[in-house]
Amino acid sequence: MASQPRFPAPPVARPPAGQRQRQGHRALAPWALATAVLTGQAMASLDAAIVNVAGPAIQHDLHLSGAGLQLAIYSYLLVYAVALVTGARLGGRYGFGRLFGYGIAIFTVSSLACGLAVSPVMLVAARAAQGLGAALLVPQVLSVLQVTFDGERRRRALSLYGMVLAVGVAAGQVLGGVLVSANVLGTGWRPVFLVNVPAGLAVLTFAAGRLPVGQRAGRARLDLAGAGWLAAAILALVVPLTFGASAGWPAWSWPVAAAGREPLIDPALLALPGIRRGLAGISALHASYGGLLFTTAVYLQDALHDSPLRSGLTFAGYAAGFATASIVWTRVPSRWQPRLPQAAFVVFAAVTGLLAWLTHGGGWPWQATALLVIAGAAHGTGFDTIVHRTAWGVPAALTDAFSGVLATINQLATVVGMAVAGTIYLSAAGGGALAPMTAVLVALTGALALTGAGLWFRSGAARPPRTAPG
Predict the structure, then answer these.
(1) Is residue 465 a part of any domain in this protein?
(2) pLDDT at 97
(3) Which strand (E) or helix (H) includes residue 234?
(4) Domain that holds residue 403
(5) What is the pLDDT of residues 378-395, one digit of tens each?
(6) Which residues does 140 contact at the CB level (< 8 Å), separation at least 6?
């Protein structure tokens, strides 16, 4: 039997006795609670990808221009990324369970509006509302898991969280292809959104009033000016990439506290040992994943003329590898676990390099699909071990801040990866030295190798900070 990991989760503050009594018999059992919040997470993750497969059908039905289709796809992602940190801070202020419920309700109603959309404006507005609902519910998922579980059970819950992140996004490609191809009752693309409605109603019915509140923040006002600056910075980064504008990369800065207000991102969080390094590693993994996901779908459907369903099924192996690694990495002997993040980057880079070699002459051999499984396993191992190690030293008082930053990094890095890889692909298609897919894969290989070489995680057992940061 494998030995236990050498960086167990830190103790997490439990709700006070009075709060437990108020929740009383209505509180969900821990694993039932985990099922409810992870279902909400799966809905949000799935919607980040499911519309990609349905894009051509939507464009034809609603007479969208190319730019209009891009806006319909990315309006969800942009609002999602912009509002995530604010959603996390609101959860810490008003209660994780309450904000999760609000988010699920908004997401469900807006999914119905997407499925019933009869014009481009209606679809884009509903997609933006979906992004807002996701931004309210997603940060609460990690916070609820952190305040509900500890020790071995917390590690298992976080492993399931990582698995849901991967399976939700990648399964969106497969489910989207299935639903569009099935053309249920002649509805075409609309079921890719309507499928969220029964799932959202089920979560609301099951979890309403039964989720933990968590430790609420003080009465200081939320720094809305900081939220505005953060939104402006993210939009300034993502919009030029998404639409191919020539504005360049704007300066990035985290908003800090205004006098007498609660900071949007607590500086104490970023000052914790290993936080910035861990977030950088997660960003590189997710950006590489986003670029590979987007360009593989384009390559298979446009260059090789595969169907949406076959394209989605090809990438399902990646999700399977990620999900498996998220569960089984804890069985690796503890003496090897400190090196798993570096090993993940090495394997991921090797896979993209081999894919570049296999596809340089065109085509997609079966070996390439097998390599996607290994790439997913490397991503899952790297992400899960970095999240565990980074979360180890986060005190309970900063749980909501960490959840918001992590969720924003997850989403924003994926969007940036899609945009950058898409730019490389289209530029190479216009007449480059390398074939478009090969150019993307070579770029990913270099980025992963450089990032892995620069991220050295301290070996041995991690130690919690002596005192909670102020």
Answers:
(1) no
(2) 81
(3) helix 224-243
(4) 27-454
(5) 998 888 888 877 777 677
(6) 37, 87, 88, 91, 96, 97, 99, 100, 103, 403
